[in-house]
Design brief:
This protein is an all-alpha fold. It has helices at 3-7, 15-30, 42-48, 54-57, 63-72, 84-95. The longest helix is centred in the first third of the chain and has 16 residues, at 15-30.
Length: 96
């Protein structure tokens, strides 16, 4: 979950779903969640840490795709991709 959803869950915008889609993609590719949760309260991990760069978890994906996924998981100070369409276009461009 992105920071914005933890901080202001009642008023979460659709862009939190874009972040969640990127997190799911990250987990499918790496087998790990985007953040490190070991030994840390999950909410603290969300609020205090950024996503681990995907290439630090696996080198089996193209760099261009890794960059898009990493950008999609930026949530400080705001979520990078504002819409699913924007994220989709970036993904398509990264694999073409």
């Amino acid at each position: 979950m992105p920071r914005q959803q933890v901080l202001n869950f009642k008023y979460a915008q659709p862009k939190v779903d874009v972040w969640a889609a990127a997190a799911c993609l990250y987990a499918m590719v790496t087998g790990y969640p985007p953040r490190n949760f070991a030994g840390v309260d999950p909410l603290c991990a969300v609020l205090q840490s950024d996503a681990v760069p995907i290439l630090d978890r696996t080198s089996s994906i193209p760099k261009s795709l890794a960059e898009v996924i990493d950008r999609a998981l930026i949530d400080n100070p705001d979520i990078y991709y504002k819409s699913a369409a924007e994220f989709k276009q970036a993904l398509l461009k990264s694999i073409s």
